[in-house]
Design goal:
- Helices cover 36% and strands 17% of the residues.
- The protein is built from ten helices and eight strands.
- β7 and β8 form a beta hairpin.
- The protein binds the ligand Cc1cc(Nc2nc(/C=C/c3ccccc3)nc3cc(N4CCN(C)CC4)ccc23)n[nH]1.
- The ligand Cc1cc(Nc2nc(/C=C/c3ccccc3)nc3cc(N4CCN(C)CC4)ccc23)n[nH]1 binds next to β1, β5 and β6.
């Protein structure tokens, strides 16, 4: 009966997948259908404590309304006295960040495919007036075919111990954000440049010892490309057209998808059999 809301009794809970700031994410299976999902548990007292009702409500309304192959779907939610449960699509491949750290960097084919998938997902979001999907490697998952899924846990998930600085990192923020100016969807284009650099070199371009130094490098666009035979001139060209201070001068999502490096290297089906 589609209208009867789910409850915890409808699910068999599996292993914890990760620990968020407001609770954990578990592998789970719907008892009747054996349909596998990821169940995100958020503790109500945490939401009350940080006064995050509206943000959570907005996050859930947005995520339920988005339907795109590169955006992790939120099927629905239910709650009990002390917890809210989000029923999320399960991505079998795990965190893209894991793949990046395992291999040190991605191939140009993988990187171009993921940048193309992200551009398509962001173009879809911008088309629905949804911006700043907080895209950073921690929020990117892979499905069983290696297709990228923006998980956008939204709750600046502490994620695992892989990168403690993650939650506080400025690495992915555009100049207008770190300078606290008002920002529009062009911040996402900036972040694509950061991600493309990190996919190919293994670390973000403005990484520094302290947040202060990262801040200075971002606002100065202190960008340099280490000598690396695996990174083509076209890739550097795309990155240089995204990491531009003036938001209006950054390559648009459409232009990104038409860029020679993307056209030449991205897998049109968006899957990267690793
Ligand atoms: C919402 C969701 C998660 C998800 N799938 C997975 N999430 C997380 C880690 C999740 C997480 C959650 C909160 C905070 C930090 C991490 N780790 C995963 C690890 C996975 N494996 C199986 C594949 N192996 C290569 C790596 C370990 C598979 C799916 C994973 N699908 N949908």
């Amino acid at each position: 009966d589609p209208e009867k809301p789910f409850s915890l009794a409808d699910f068999e809970i599996g292993r914890p997948l990760g620990k968020g700031k407001f609770g954990r994410v578990y592998l789970a299976r719907e008892v009747k259908s054996h349909f596998v999902v990821a169940l995100k548990v958020i503790f109500k007292e945490q939401i009350e404590k940080y006064k995050l009702h509206h943000q959570l409500r907005r996050e859930m309304e947005i995520q339920t309304s988005l339907r795109h192959p590169n955006i992790l779907h939120l099927y629905g939610w239910f709650d009990d006295d002390e917890r809210i449960f989000l029923i999320l699509e399960y991505a079998h491949g795990g965190e893209l960040y894991g793949l990046l750290k395992e291999n040190g960097h991605l191939t140009e084919q993988q990187a171009a495919t993921y940048i193309s998938s992200l551009s398509q997902a962001l173009a879809y979001c911008h088309g629905k007036c949804v911006i700043h999907r907080d895209i950073k490697p921690e929020n990117l998952l892979l499905d069983h075919e290696g297709r990228l899924k923006i998980a956008d846990f939204g709750w600046s998930v502490q994620s695992s111990n892989k990168r403690k600085t993650m939650c506080g990192t400025l690495d992915y923020l555009a100049p207008e954000m770190v300078e606290n100016k008002d920002h529009d969807h062009a911040v996402d284009n900036w972040t694509l440049g950061i991600l493309c650099y990190e996919f190919l070199y293994g670390n973000p371009p403005f990484e520094a010892e302290s947040q202060k130094d990262t801040f200075k490098r971002i606002v100065k666009i202190d960008l340099s490309f280490p000598d690396n035979p695996n990174v083509s001139a076209e890739a550097k060209n795309l990155i240089s057209q995204l990491l531009v201070k003036d938001p209006s001068k950054r390559l648009s999502l459409t232009k990104i998808m038409q860029h020679p490096w993307i056209v030449k290297n991205a897998d049109p089906k968006g899957v990267c059999l690793i």
